[in-house]
Each structure stands twice: as structure tokens, then as C-alpha cells.
């Protein structure tokens, strides 16, 4: 063996060892990255779970307050009205007593009406008893009593059931969307179209406003930290739904909500 | 005046039950025979004695008024049910009437109306006030409108892809633009377009757009 051969073999061995080391390092780094990704996935999962827990807690609390208001205070106010009615034959006449009683009764009715509105906004009773599409229709009826904007609701005749947890989230998304339209879009008319196939639920919310809905939402988010848009996104995220905004024709905004696999829990 | 009408009240709020009883006391032909705290309690008492008319609250523990109304209708066809509730909601009104309620009143109704409703349901079998009439009318009109305006899925089952293409056609996009927008080849878009014409029975794009309009797909 001459020195020439020794050098060649030596170099070869060194090279192989070098390559081996490099491969080892790369392999290890890959493992580190994979581990990090795993941790991040777990973090995201945890975050989602936390969000779901917060939202569920919030809904539970809203439901409790709504029911207390509606059932307890409502019953008491109704009794108040009945009692006022019994005063009627006992009142003296001549000094406007009857008129005053009438005004008081009307005022009681106004309070009851406010109570209904607050309670229904807090928690839609129709959702549990009659399902999502009826609850949305009731929501539109309620908003239309306020006259600020005219909301039309149409649905197809398929009547597929929606999983209750998802139904509540979808209801909240539409509610938030309408609230945002009222605040930002300067619309006079809103059309909500509700359609289902066995696997896909689609809701189109079309307004005839200034088409600035998304823009104003973004602005509000920067200026006041308003969470409207974020709420919509997180709720849809939880139930695996999506929302897309498009400019309407000739004006306004079209929001398209889609939820797949809506008949079963996640 | 009509003869004695036996009335029962099912409501989970004692204060409200007493309020109603006080209100009805002056009317001599009304005889409140019993009170129940919820639907289960009501049906229990009814095994022994049946009233002519029940004033039924909707929101009650154990068994709510919706369920109780159905049960009463099944078992005691002659007993009339007047819903007396806080819920002012067309969908509840329609649902309850469909399930056998004979009248639907709000809890803040005038005592005179409660009395009138009891007498009328007892004599004629139903009492529909303006709230009920409007809710039912809305329902009927909605149904006829749906007959004139068939929805996509019941009449012509379009796939989601086809719906998407139809909507883009209505937005005056060309085949090329559509294919860029939804990431399909122009050939596939053309195929979907053809399929749409076949399925809707339209002869050309104008017919297609008209179809979309009629079915409320675009504004």
C-alpha cells in the first residue's frame, strides 16, 4: 500500500463520516421540527376547546337570564296588568283617573314588549322547540317590529334537522351579521335565504346597503377593537363552517355561510 | 248567558294563576275547577275530572304546554285548550294551532278578551284573535308562494358546483372568467353550463338567468 492509496482511503472514510454526520443532524432537526409542530397542534386544539367552553358557558348564562326575565318578571308584570284591570270599576270618574289608568296599563304593555325583545335576543326559545329555520324566521319577525330595516326570510321546503349545538352557533352568526348590517351597512332591506341538502346547509344574507359592510367591520375592529367579525369567524371555526363576502349587484353585500355535515355533532 | 263553563289553569307561577282566577271571579258563568303546576300535574288531575276549557301556559317544568296540548288533544278530544303565554311569536302560534290548541292568547291580554276566548272556544270550538289570524295567513301565503316558486332541491336537484356556476353566470362572467374564479378548466365549466341548461329546461343563458331569478337565487 503506498501513501497515495492511504490518502485516498482516508479521504473516502472522512467523506463518508462527514455525510453520516450531516444526515444525522438533518434527521434530528426534522424530529425537532415535527415535535414543535405537534406541540403547536395540541396548543391549537386546547385553544379551541377553551373557546368552546367559554362560549358554552356564555350561552348557558344568557339562557338563564333570559328565562328568569321572561318567566319570572314576565309573569309578575302580567299579574300587575291583571290587577290594574281590577282597579278600573273602583276608580272615581271625572278627574282623568280612567285615562291615567289606561296610560299605566299601556305602559305596562310596553315594558312587557321590551322584556320579550331582550329575552329573545339573549336566548331564542324557538330554537329548542321549533328548530333553526323557524327560529331565524322568528328573529326576522322580531327585528321587523323595530322597523329600522325590513328583513325577508325564505327557506326551501326540505326541513332537515340541524344538530342543536351547531344550530345555536349558526343562529348567533346570523344575528351578529344582521347587527353588523344595522350598524355599518345603511341598508333598508335584507334578504335571508336558507337552503339545505342532506350534507350542506347554506345561508345567504344579502343586504342593499352601501357595500361597505366588510370595510366598516375592519375599521371598527382597528378603531374600537369590536369583536363582531372575530365572533362570527370563531363560531364558524368551531362547527367547521365558512363565510364569504361578495359585493352585491347593484349594491350592498352578499354574505354566504356554509356548514357541511350540519346534522351531526363534531 | 251560557251555562257554567268548567275552566282549569295550568301554569307554574302561582301568582299568575291567582291573578287569572281573581280576574275571572266576577264572571258568574265561569267556574275555575282546578289549577295545575305543569303538564304532568294537569294530566294527572284530568284522569279524575275533565274541565271544559284549559288555560295553558307554554313554558312549564317537567312537561311544557306544547307537549301537554298534544296529549290533551289525543286523550280528551272534547276539552278545549286556550294557550295563555308570554311568547308572542308567529311560529309558536302556528305550531300550537297545528297541534290542537283552540286559541292563543298573550298573558298581557285584557281580562275581557280572556273571558271572551273562554266562552267562544266553549261554544264554537275556537277563538282566533288578530294575532292568530295574521300568523296563519302568513303561513298560508308562504306555502302558496313556495308552490309558485319551487326551490332548487325539490324540483331540480342542482349540485353545489352547478349552483356556483349558475350564480357566476348571473354575475355576467364569461366561461373563461368563471374557470379562473373556481379553478376549473374552461371545458369543465362549459360542461356544467350545458348540464344546467338540461336540468332547468332553459333554452339559453337568458332562460337560465330567468330561472335563477324566479327561484330567488339572485336579487
UniProtKB/TrEMBL annotation, chain A:
The keyword Plastid does not apply. GO terms for cellular component: membrane. It is an enzyme of class 2 (transferase). Its EC number is 2.7.13.3. Keywords: ATP-binding, Kinase, Membrane, Nucleotide-binding, Phosphoprotein, Transferase, Transmembrane, Transmembrane helix, Two-component regulatory system. SUPFAM superfamilies: ATPase domain of HSP90 chaperone/DNA topoisomerase II/histidine kinase (SSF55874). Pfam families: HATPase_c, HisKA_3. Residues 61-127 form the Signal transduction histidine kinase subgroup 3 dimerisation and phosphoacceptor domain. Signal peptide: none annotated. One of its GO terms (molecular function) is protein dimerization activity. Residues 168-259 form the Histidine kinase/HSP90-like ATPase domain. It catalyses: ATP + protein L-histidine = ADP + protein N-phospho-L-histidine. The chain crosses the membrane at residues 6-27. Gene3D superfamilies: 1.20.5.1930, Histidine kinase-like ATPase, C-terminal domain. InterPro entries: HATPase_C_sf, HATPase_dom, Sensor_HK_TwoCompSys, Sig_transdc_His_kin_sub3_dim/P. PANTHER family: NITRATE/NITRITE SENSOR PROTEIN NARX-RELATED, NITRATE_NITRITE SENSOR PROTEIN NARQ. This is histidine kinase. It comes from Chitinophaga silvisoli. The lineage of its organism: Bacteria, Pseudomonadati, Bacteroidota, Chitinophagia, Chitinophagales.
TrEMBL record, chain B:
GO terms for molecular function: DNA binding. SUPFAM superfamilies: C-terminal effector domain of the bipartite response regulators, CheY-like. This is DNA-binding response regulator. Gene3D superfamilies: 3.40.50.2300. SMART domains: HTH_LUXR, REC. Residues 6-122 form the Response regulatory domain. It comes from the Bacteria.
Amino acid at each position: 500500500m503506498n501513501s497515495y492509496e492511504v490518502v485516498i482511503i482516508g479521504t473516502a472514510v472522512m467523506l463518508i463520516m462527514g455525510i453520516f454526520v450531516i444526515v444525522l443532524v438533518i434527521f434530528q432537526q426534522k424530529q425537532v421540527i415535527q415535535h414543535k409542530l405537534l406541540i403547536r397542534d395540541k396548543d391549537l386544539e386546547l385553544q379551541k376547546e377553551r373557546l368552546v367552553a367559554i362560549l358554552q358557558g356564555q350561552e348557558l348564562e344568557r339562557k338563564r337570564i333570559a328565562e328568569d326575565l321572561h318567566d319570572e318578571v314576565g309573569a309578575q308584570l302580567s299579574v300587575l296588568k291583571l290587577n290594574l284591570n281590577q282597579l278600573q270599576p273602583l276608580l272615581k270618574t271625572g278627574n282623568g283617573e280612567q285615562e291615567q289608568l289606561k296610560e299605566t296599563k299601556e305602559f305596562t304593555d310596553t315594558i312587557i314588549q321590551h322584556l320579550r325583545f331582550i329575552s329573545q335576543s339573549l336566548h331564542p326559545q324557538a330554537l329548542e322547540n321549533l328548530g333553526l329555520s323557524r327560529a331565524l324566521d322568528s328573529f326576522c319577525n322580531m327585528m321587523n317590529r323595530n322597523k329600522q330595516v325590513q328583513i325577508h326570510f325564505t327557506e326551501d321546503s326540505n326541513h332537515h334537522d340541524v344538530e342543536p349545538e351547531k344550530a345555536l352557533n349558526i343562529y348567533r352568526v346570523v344575528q351578529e351579521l344582521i347587527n353588523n348590517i344595522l350598524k355599518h351597512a345603511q341598508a333598508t332591506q335584507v334578504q335571508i335565504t336558507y337552503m339545505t341538502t342532506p350534507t350542506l346547509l347554506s345561508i345567504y344574507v344579502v343586504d342593499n346597503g352601501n357595500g361597505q359592510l366588510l370595510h366598516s367591520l375592519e375599521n371598527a375592529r382597528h378603531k374600537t377593537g369590536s369583536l363582531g367579525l372575530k365572533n362570527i369567524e370563531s363560531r364558524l371555526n368551531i362547527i367547521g363552517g365558512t363565510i364569504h363576502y361578495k359585493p352585491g349587484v347593484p349594491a350592498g353585500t352578499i354574505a354566504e355561510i356554509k356548514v357541511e355535515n350540519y346534522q351531526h355533532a363534531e | 248567558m251560557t251555562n257554567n263553563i268548567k275552566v282549569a289553569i295550568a301554569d307554574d307561577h302561582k301568582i299568575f294563576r291567582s291573578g287569572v282566577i281573581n280576574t275571572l271571579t266576577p264572571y258568574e258563568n265561569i267556574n275555575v275547577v282546578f289549577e295545575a303546576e305543569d303538564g304532568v300535574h294537569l294530566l294527572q288531575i284530568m284522569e279524575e275530572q275533565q274541565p271544559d276549557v284549559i288555560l295553558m301556559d307554554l313554558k312549564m317544568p317537567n312537561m311544557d304546554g306544547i307537549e301537554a296540548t298534544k296529549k290533551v288533544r289525543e286523550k280528551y278530544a272534547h276539552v278545549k285548550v286556550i294557550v295563555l303565554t308570554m311568547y308572542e311569536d308567529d311560529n309558536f302560534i302556528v305550531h300550537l294551532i297545528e297541534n290542537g290548541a283552540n286559541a292563543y292568547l298573550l298573558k298581557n291580554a285584557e281580562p275581557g278578551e280572556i273571558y271572551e276566548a273562554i266562552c267562544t272556544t266553549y261554544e264554537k270550538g275556537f277563538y282566533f284573535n288578530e294575532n292568530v289570524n295574521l300568523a296563519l295567513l302568513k303561513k298560508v301565503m308562504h306555502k302558496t308562494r313556495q308552490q309558485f316558486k319551487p326551490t332548487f332541491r325539490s324540483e331540480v336537484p342542482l349540485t353545489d358546483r352547478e349552483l356556483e356556476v349558475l350564480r357566476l353566470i348571473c354575475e355576467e362572467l364569461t366561461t373563461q372568467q368563471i374557470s379562473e374564479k373556481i379553478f376549473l378548466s374552461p371545458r369543465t365549466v362549459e360542461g356544467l353550463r350545458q348540464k344546467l341548461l338540461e336540468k332547468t329546461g332553459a333554452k339559453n343563458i337568458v332562460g337560465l338567468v330567468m330561472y335563477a331569478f324566479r327561484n330567488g337565487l339572485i336579487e
